């Protein structure tokens, strides 16, 4: 009866009470979200690039989390702030990655496809292994806390996942070279998939303890997963294009139905890939690219406007939320700060590992590229610098706490947390300065205009004329480039007519390539 | 190593495996969602009203659930289909209710406000008590399974929550009388809040076993909750109006920021109310009404189009998903069919209870209404018939399984499940026929045009002229009506100028009242 008098609708420990706690938790999250948006807007308006939106969100999360920690918030409310990897992978990540693909400029992406794949697959592999070996060696020499070799490799894998959000939003704001943008963007999206795959394989190797001989297998498996996921994504994209071409939903009063279906397809692709044991990230990325390229033009005008705004909105919300969520969780979780040496040295090591990744891959790519298309040193430096770690590394590190016993996971988690916070705040805050120092800002756009628009395609002719120093390896790589290039013609003559409606096709197509520049991506 | 060879990325029982199960589960849900949308579209196109979209969704869920049951789907996948009350209350319900408020025609709603509140509060109370007493008496006389009196009242409360989705979509499709629409709509939205409140109070009474003397308290508490929630909702709505009026976000390139903030406000309102221990449903409903009326016109044109489409999209997805989700869960859950008599009689009893609700409340309302505005018998019959039970009753029944011991909750759950399926399929399927038989379809729109538009307000003058048979009770009721009516003038002279930007105000305002008719609601 006492309870009754205070608040009859809210008994203690009942579902109603739990719901109230959920209400408070979510309320706080919404308030931080609003604060982040407003703060980000104000900072951008005043061209203050030292605190990008993502860093601001992370800081807000950290501060509110610290306050909640001090004020002894109830555990039922806290429960709403624990970073759930499942929630991240199933609900926050898909819209972010889809929007990346949907707002992609296909020309620079595909013309750099070979380089991107090199950086993402070979490079991430190199970075993981280098990090793992360095951490292991430092452990053996008692420089830092000693971890078993396989666990070092797991750490190397998860810490090699770079985050696209912060750096790209600054690239976009400042207007940097499109090829550099494509490289940074493509690498960071694809290497997430590589890092997950590597991490999981290492985790398996660890539980089965059958070391050695697997390094080659890992690459093969990754390629299998990659090709499978890409096929699934492209398949779903093409299916959607045909559906919207023939279903006749572009009548005025069916706009809602049209949009509902359009919005469901990307998620379908993600879950299809995950359900098949493939990589949802890769799948939804390619669905995004295909849907923008083909399905999008089959929609009615109103729906086109709506879905663009919709995906932009959803992905901004998800992005901002990820950083807040991460910041809050970092402030709330228990950390084992005893291994401060581990943190310091791993920051050093990932710097070295990223250098090994970027410069070796750039060397390989430059081997096969013609002189005027080589990746310049300043782009390599920018690429090296842009490797900040974000939500993907954090989510995998959180998983490692469950996967690894005896506080090893805890050590890895704390180190990752520190690396994420430091790189997001420091690298995120200094990217603008760095880009200006390397002189890759602004004017380089013209270079892009020259190199692409005159060829009216993915630079196909350039490759044909080039044939010096022909060892077998280089030839193979060049063939791959050529096949990418001839894709343009195939697309123009067969794919586009088949998958899209034919009204005013040429203009629409050009517009598609152009408009994502206007501010679509992010 | 065996595992390795088959699929290295997906070890059994690991997070990756769980994620794969989640992928399959969500994939299935998306497929059902797409199927529902397409089926609903086809049925509507062929004007087949015997299987409305909600019924179709429920059936799809039931069928797929039954198939999954037969085919022995893995438990990890099944876990993704269990109906979680929390998920329903926190994520599916808010968009549905907000869209109800956002697409509301304020004129008929407010002019019938007194009647709606009577039906929702007094009527639901009557219906709950009548159902509870009948079930108890039937139990005492060994007609059906005997439940304790308080549990009978809990059952009465939860089964009195009527569902707006199905009936209203048909009302809308066929174009029925606007006053009837407002009554059915308003009652079903508000009585959800009453039913929750009653259910929780009864649940508390049960655990404290201090019966009697609480009936009056329940009403008082409910009114407190109602007024508090309404104030919170209206407050958040007005805050948003002022923000969008003065923040200057209606510039072209800030559309995304504007939309992000606009989209967060309703959810903020819901969580604020829940966090305060009030009713989120009532709060978000009024936020919807206020935001449509004031904040909406402060947005840029593009954002206006976008947010309308956005809320429509999100609520359609949530609505359809609720029915699929419910159908699937019904097919998967264990039911105690031994109490078939309980089910049969409770269907009979809720029919009687709803009659007691509708006809007694209509009598009360008609006492104070002038002759030409009395609720006609055919509207009363339509109102009685429209009381189908949906997701709210289902969610509360599911909660009762946890709340009540000894299989009592199970009995209530099974009965509720049966009632939901029967009423959704039977009443949902026959609403079209019923509306035509009662002749409340189509032409009655003109009556509305006459009664509202000539007065240019909420019918204020009509009340002033009327003053016969003045007993105290009737006078009080009339005063309430009058205050509602004079609100129009207040709104026009003070609220609208204060909360909205003043450009082309009059037209915009009229358009606001008008356009929700066009197909906005649903």
TrEMBL record, chains A, B:
InterPro entries the UniProt entry points to: Cation/H_exchanger_CPA1, Cation/H_exchanger_TM, NaH_exchanger
Pfam families xref list: Na_H_Exchanger
Catalyzed reaction equations: K(+)(in) + H(+)(out) = K(+)(out) + H(+)(in); Na(+)(in) + H(+)(out) = Na(+)(out) + H(+)(in)
Membrane-traversing stretches: 21-43, 49-67, 87-104, 116-145, 219-244, 264-286, 306-328, 340-362, 382-401, 407-428
One cellular-component annotation, GO: endosome
Subcellular localization: Membrane
Topology in membrane: Multi-pass membrane protein
Domain Cation/H+ exchanger transmembrane stretches: 36-436
Keyword Acyltransferase: no
This protein's UniProt keywords: Antiport, Ion transport, Membrane, Potassium, Potassium transport, Sodium, Sodium transport, Transmembrane, Transmembrane helix, Transport
Domain of life: Eukaryota
GO biological process: regulation of intracellular pH; sodium ion import across plasma membrane
PANTHER family (UniProt xref): SODIUM/HYDROGEN EXCHANGER, SODIUM_HYDROGEN EXCHANGER 5-RELATED
Family affiliation: Belongs to the monovalent cation:proton antiporter 1 (CPA1) transporter (TC 2.A.36) family.
Protein name: Sodium/hydrogen exchanger
Lineage of the organism: Eukaryota, Viridiplantae, Streptophyta, Embryophyta, Tracheophyta
Gene designation: LOC105175191
């Amino acid at each position: 009866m006492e309870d009754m008098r205070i608040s009859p609708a809210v008994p203690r420990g009942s579902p109603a009470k739990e719901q109230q706690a959920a209400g408070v938790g979510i309320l706080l999250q919404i308030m931080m979200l609003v604060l982040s948006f407003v703060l980000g807007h104000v900072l951008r308006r005043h061209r203050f690039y030292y605190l990008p939106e993502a860093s601001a969100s992370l800081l807000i999360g950290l501060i509110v989390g610290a306050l909640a920690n001090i004020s002894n918030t109830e555990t039922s409310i806290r429960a709403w702030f624990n970073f759930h990897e499942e929630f991240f992978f199933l609900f926050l990540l898909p819209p972010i990655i889809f929007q990346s693909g949907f707002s992609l400029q296909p020309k620079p992406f595909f013309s750099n496809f070979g380089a991107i794949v090199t950086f993402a697959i070979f490079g991430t592999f190199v970075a993981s292994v280098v990090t793992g070996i360095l951490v292991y060696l430092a452990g053996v020499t008692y420089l830092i806390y000693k971890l078993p070799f396989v666990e070092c490799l797991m750490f190397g894998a998860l810490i090699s996942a770079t985050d696209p959000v912060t750096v790209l939003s600054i690239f976009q704001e400042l207007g940097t070279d499109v090829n550099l943008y494509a490289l940074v963007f493509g690498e960071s999206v694809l290497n997430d998939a590589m890092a997950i795959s590597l991490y999981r394989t290492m985790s398996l190797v660890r539980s089965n303890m059958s070391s050695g001989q697997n390094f080659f297998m890992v690459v093969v498996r990754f390629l299998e997963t990659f090709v499978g996921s890409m096929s699934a994504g492209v398949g779903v994209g093409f299916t959607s294009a045909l559906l919207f071409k023939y279903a006749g939903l572009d009548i005025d009063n069916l706009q809602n139905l049209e949009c509902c279906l359009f919005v469901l397809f990307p998620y379908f692709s993600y879950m299809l890939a995950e359900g098949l044991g493939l990589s949802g990230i890769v799948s939804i990325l390619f669905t995004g690219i295909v849907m923008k390229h083909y399905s999008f033009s089959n929609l009615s005008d109103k729906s086109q406007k709506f879905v663009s705004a919709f995906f932009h909105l959803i992905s901004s919300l998800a992005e901002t939320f990820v950083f807040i969520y991460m910041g809050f969780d970092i402030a709330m979780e228990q950390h084992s700060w005893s291994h401060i040496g581990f943190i310091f040295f791993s920051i050093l090591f990932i710097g070295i590992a990223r250098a090994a990744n970027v410069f070796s891959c750039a060397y390989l790519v430059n081997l096969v590229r013609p002189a005027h298309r080589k990746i310049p040193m300043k782009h390599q430096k920018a690429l090296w610098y842009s490797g900040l770690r974000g939500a993907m590394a954090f989510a995998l590190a959180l998983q490692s706490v469950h996967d690894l016993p005896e506080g090893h996971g805890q050590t890895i988690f704390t180190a990752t947390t520190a690396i994420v916070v430091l790189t997001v705040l420091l690298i995120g805050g200094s990217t603008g300065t760095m880009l200006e120092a390397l002189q890759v800002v602004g004017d380089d756009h013209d270079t892009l205009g020259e190199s692409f628009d005159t060829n009216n395609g993915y630079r196909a002719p350039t490759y044909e004329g080039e044939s010096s120093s022909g060892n077998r390896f280089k030839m193979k790589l060049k063939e791959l480039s050529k096949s990418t290039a001839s894709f343009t013609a195939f697309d123009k003559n067969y794919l586009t007519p088949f998958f899209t409606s034919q009204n005013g096709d040429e203009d629409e197509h050009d517009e598609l390539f152009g408009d994502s520049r206007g501010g679509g991506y992010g």
